[in-house]
């Protein structure tokens, strides 16, 4: 390195360290969001410049001249050599979902510091490493999927466990995201109409692309985006019309059934009609709003009202139960490390890379970008005063159902908020109430509306910005939900094929309808029970999602470690073993506590026995019948069984991998790489011969 | 003027690639280069093919 460059990078590193110090040492005064931005951006820059370069050069020895699958297998369809910035955009649009928005918002109950540190450090050493390693491994193996690599590198047991893990995660993921939507739209005619209209808009785009102007995707998307703006105003008009508003003021259970119907429709209808056009709209809205939020935060540089640490680090928090360790690391999955990305990184992306070395920008870089989205979500949640944040995110079981009871409960936690503040904020954003809108989406929307309206439009525009943010989050979530349901249907059909061959036919309607209904019923069950849950459902479902996502992360890192060891570079295996051991510790500790903690607000089984005890002695929770309590007991035990299954799966994969590593390192099994042999193409060989 | 046109075309190509629908002209160039003489898909057929590839089989779509 040149002296000037050393000086420059030292400054960046010092700025980052100073910002992290400023955040960590703040006590009792508000801190500007600028510090969080500097801490994040400086860490990303240093990590990208040095750590990802080290991984590219030493762990994989990526070579710009070695031909990629896209070049060798170019078929114009799956395998297409593509410019790295385009692959970056495509990969980012595929990995970034609602996860990095919701997790940090929920974890803000501990204060901004635990979430901020985990997002910034976790991504540099964990999440971005995982995505990069899996992408590089897949590029060297003709774009093979994670499941295939697990089977080939570790063994068939690990491969089968990985497949089962994917199915389990999708069920939990879809149900919890659907619950976030339902909680955001409950008794909100404006939100319901705006989100509801996005479905006919997508259908219209589908018809336009199929018959009116075939293939003109950008035209159709532009029309769709204009219509989305119309839908935003139409929602307001309906909400203000006294005779129409009650028609669209729906209960949680009705919305849950509607979301299930939507998921089913998206899975059985032809993709060109609903799924694809929605995906296009969502991709553009996603990228546009993320950029706008970044500009908004830079322009406003809002102070963080949330303290660095709250008293709820002791595990008594109302948003979700459990101490800061391990639950901050479970709650924030996407943004720090997300196992789900390993499916994308071993799916379409490796088939598009023009040069092996592009894997660094696409794999490591796109994950840094997603981490930045998580940082922005954390900022948006923390610009709210803690009183408002807890009023929106604490379940009715903790704060009651009136502004007065909420203000009182929150005062007991040591935060001040007046009932008038709560009611006036609700009317400012055009809602009847914001209390107990658990799930993260509404409080994030209030935070975003706050930032956007400070930059543009003033407080008069709060209501429009709020519903715009809700629409943005709902689009995000519904595209994960519909595509996920369809994928779940394929997985079920693929599994059912072994029992009865015709069930596997992806275009045979009876099989399509049955598999779709079955998969919707699976996530629909968890969704519906979550809606009925007096503690809001997010409380028990989000930790399950976190555990399952981190489980897939552990599987991916096991595959990565095995790939590194099998290719004879065991001395660099710490790169993946470091995040792997951390994930194993937090996931297993969290799972253990969720299942076995004697505290009924935390442990599933303790809650079940507390309810059973109440049932036996005739002391039922307020307003619940005996049959409802029996159902709640069953659900707690079901959640415990699901968490136990996830933990067993992690252990199986880790033990299988560890046995393989020991065998290779002891020399009992030869270190055999499954990489496709290097090919430098004719031009390079000629050039080298001429030297 | 030509530069503006080129920039615009590039932006269009990037936007289309992000949603997984490559440019039709890029497809034609690819076919001429790699599969000369092979039958060509119309823009609508190409779009249908891309949508099928992207959504009709298990693949990654994240949280």
Query: Count of helical segments of chain B?
Result: 3
What gap, in angstroms, lies between the N and C termini of chain A?
Answer: 27 Å
Beta-strand percentage of chain A? Answer: under 5%
Contiguous uncertain segments of 5+ residues of chain B: none
Which structural class fits the helix and strand makeup of chain A?
mainly alpha
- Between the first and last Cα atoms of chain B, what is the distance in angstroms? 43 Å
Biggest pleated-sheet summary of chain B? none
Order of helices and strands of chain B: HHH
The assembly state of the depicted protein chains is heterodimer
Largest sheet of chain A: 2 strands, antiparallel
- Spatial ordering of strands, largest sheet of chain A: 1-2
What does this structure look like?
The complex is a heterodimer of chains A (691) and B (63). In chain A, strands 1-2 form a two-stranded antiparallel ribbon. Chain A has helices at 3-25, 33-59, 69-72, 84-95, 99-107, 112-139, 146-154, 156-185, 189-212, 217-240, 252-268, 275-300, 324-331, 341-345, 358-382, 386-393, 396-399, 403-412, 419-428, 441-455, 462-496, 509-532, 538-566, 574-596, 604-617, 626-666, 681-690, and strands spanning 31-32, 303-304. The longest helix of chain A has 41 residues, at 626-666. Chain A has 691 residues and is mostly helical. Chain B contains three helices and no strands.
